[in-house]
Amino acid sequence: MNPVATFATIFFSMILVNNYVLVQFLGICPFLGVSKKLDSSAGMGMAVIAVMVIATAVTFPLQILLLDAFDLGYLQTIVFILVIAVLVQLIEITLKKYIPALYQSLGVYLPLITTNCCVLGVTILAVQDYSAVVEQYGFGLAYAEALVCAAGAGVGFLVAMLLFCGVRQRVENANPPECFKGLPITLVSAAITSLSFMGFGGMVENIINAIF
User: 22: closest CA among 197, 202, 186, 158?
Assistant: First the structure.
């Protein structure tokens, strides 16, 4: 498979097949907490994309060139969380200064990106999935694939947020049974939304192979 097809497969697979929220159930807290309004959903999604890509760009070479090289792999989680925390603080300061409306709408969920298992998960899984590529094809290709994976995971998070925002608006205008009102109907709607993504299994690779 040529590099373009490989990158396209990784990117769209992370959005549709291996969506971190709807398939792997990571990042559920902001997914349920910020998806009530379209602007906050889009803002949170864009912030997560930025954090995921930049965090992976920093943590992947740290893991390969520093932690693995000096047998410090046991520090992975601590180092990765520190990197993510610094990035989130920078984004928080930037939004507070230049986009205060979005900063106010995100509220407490913006600093919660630091503890968002979706962000930490993509950095750790990128190392697990593409560290073997370093040995076979070199650091450059593995690094590029890890960044594409992070970008696809971030876009998948954004897509999930926007889709579920529309679902929640329809649900809130409905009149479910009393026992389902509030959080129960929200969780049921999230489960049904995640089921729809199961239909993309196997489709992405077949379509991209047909194109390339």
Answer: 197
Tokens 């930049």: give the residue.
54
CA gap 192, 196 in Å, rounded? 7
CA–CA distance from 181 to each of 22, 164, 170, 171 (Å)?
22, 17, 13, 9
Question: Do residues 63 and 130 make contact, with C-beta atoms less than 8 angstroms apart?
Answer: no
Burial class (CB in 10 A: 0-12, 13-18, 19+), 40: buried
pTM above 0.85, yes or no: yes
Spatial distance between the Cα atoms of 1 and 23, rounded to a whole number of angstroms: 26
DSSP-assigned states of every residue in 69-124: TTT-GGGHHHHHHHHHHHHHHHHHHHHHHH-HHHHHHHGGGTGGGGG-HHHHHHHH
Q: Token pair of 2, please?
A: 């040529």
Which residue would you say has higher pLDDT here, 148 or 190? 148
Average pLDDT of the chain?
86
Distance CA(20)–CA(150), nearest Å, equals 11
Question: In whole angstroms, what is the distance from residue 185 CA to residue 140 CA?
Answer: 46
The predicted-structure confidence for 149-170, as pLDDT tens digits, reads as follows 999 999 999 999 999 998 888 8
